[in-house]
Amino acid sequence: MKFTAEQIAGILEGEVVGNPNAEVYKLAKIEEGTDGSLTFLANPKYGSYIYTTKATITIVNKTFHPEQEIATTLIKVEDAYKSFSKLLEYYNQVKLMKSGIEQPSMISENVTYGQGLYLGSFCYIGKNVIIGKNAKIYPNSFIGDNVVIGDDCVFFAGVRIYSETVIGNNCTVHSGVIIGSDGFGFAPQEDGSYTKVPQIGNVIIEDNVEIGSCTTIDRATLGATVIKKGVKLDNQIQIAHNVEIGENTVIAAQTGIAGSTKIGKNCMIGGQVGFAGHLVIGDNVKIQAQSGIGKNLSDGEVVQGSPAFNYGDFSKSYVHFRNLPKIVSDLEKIKKNN
């Protein structure tokens, strides 16, 4: 899809300096711009590239004034970085603007869906499913019985949504995600074997949640596993049964959260963090990468380590960790001298 400088300026409320009919069909970094590409200049460190870039159109701040001749057409805006981000969002929306039901696909009985549905090939929609407006469900996805999906949701290829799951509005679920699979519940028997504990709860995901590729969220044993509004989950995260994650919390890749742990709102959790079960983590907590959380954390704590402790104490202690062989050697010398 091609756009002219004039069209882009209209979207961004900007001013064209150069050829208003210049056309672009792709995006590029300013130093890698080629004919037909659109780029931007926001960081002065890259200022020299404006004179050599082969990009057809460049978005710049209104305060920018070239010191020598340039070939690229300019679009002047208040904030080049924000405007380019806005354009990326618009581009993404246009790219995802699909509708209709591709074949082969299977829609079971008593399914209802709103206007603007896109259902890709080889999708399966179970019984009594409710899907809101403008949902995009890409090929090879599975939606189980009695699932409820809100408006403006996007499910990329290969998503699996088990029965009874409830998903709010404006949620994005990336490829390979599994929501609503059984929690890890087994009762030990006298002979050393294990009997599976039925997992009859569900998963509730509120509005504006994004879930990264290959993340898994288990259904509750009883009740619900709950992901509250605004939560952002990276790729390859494991969320166990009956976990609750508070509003606007962000979690990086490969984190694992054991059953029934409750995490507060506005938390920031680094990659490869491990949580024990049945914990309570307060609001606004920050947890550094590769930490092991085995106890409750109060509001606003910042922790690191395994087991995790106060971040400032960890940083000071780390200096000594690195010098431990020398410290031991010095102690041995003192002991000998005494």
From TrEMBL:
<dbReference type="GO" id="GO:0103118">
    <property type="term" value="F:UDP-3-O-[(3R)-3-hydroxyacyl]-glucosamine N-acyltransferase activity"/>
</dbReference>
<keyword id="KW-0444">Lipid biosynthesis</keyword>
<comment type="subunit">
    <text>Homotrimer.</text>
</comment>
<keyword id="KW-0441">Lipid A biosynthesis</keyword>
<comment type="pathway">
    <text>Bacterial outer membrane biogenesis; LPS lipid A biosynthesis.</text>
</comment>
<dbReference type="InterPro" id="IPR011004">
    <property type="entry name" value="Trimer_LpxA-like_sf"/>
</dbReference>
<keyword id="KW-0012">Acyltransferase</keyword>
<dbReference type="InterPro" id="IPR007691">
    <property type="entry name" value="LpxD"/>
</dbReference>
<dbReference type="InterPro" id="IPR001451">
    <property type="entry name" value="Hexapep"/>
</dbReference>
<dbReference type="Pfam" id="PF04613">
    <property type="entry name" value="LpxD"/>
</dbReference>
<feature type="domain" description="UDP-3-O-[3-hydroxymyristoyl] glucosamine N-acyltransferase non-repeat region">
    <location>
        <begin position="22"/>
        <end position="89"/>
    </location>
</feature>
<keyword id="KW-0808">Transferase</keyword>
<comment type="function">
    <text>Catalyzes the N-acylation of UDP-3-O-acylglucosamine using 3-hydroxyacyl-ACP as the acyl donor. Is involved in the biosynthesis of lipid A, a phosphorylated glycolipid that anchors the lipopolysaccharide to the outer membrane of the cell.</text>
</comment>
<feature type="active site" description="Proton acceptor">
    <location>
        <position position="241"/>
    </location>
</feature>
<dbReference type="Pfam" id="PF00132">
    <property type="entry name" value="Hexapep"/>
</dbReference>
<protein>
    <recommendedName>
        <fullName>UDP-3-O-acylglucosamine N-acyltransferase</fullName>
        <ecNumber>2.3.1.191</ecNumber>
    </recommendedName>
</protein>
<keyword id="KW-0677">Repeat</keyword>
<comment type="similarity">
    <text>Belongs to the transferase hexapeptide repeat family. LpxD subfamily.</text>
</comment>
<dbReference type="InterPro" id="IPR020573">
    <property type="entry name" value="UDP_GlcNAc_AcTrfase_non-rep"/>
</dbReference>
<keyword id="KW-0443">Lipid metabolism</keyword>
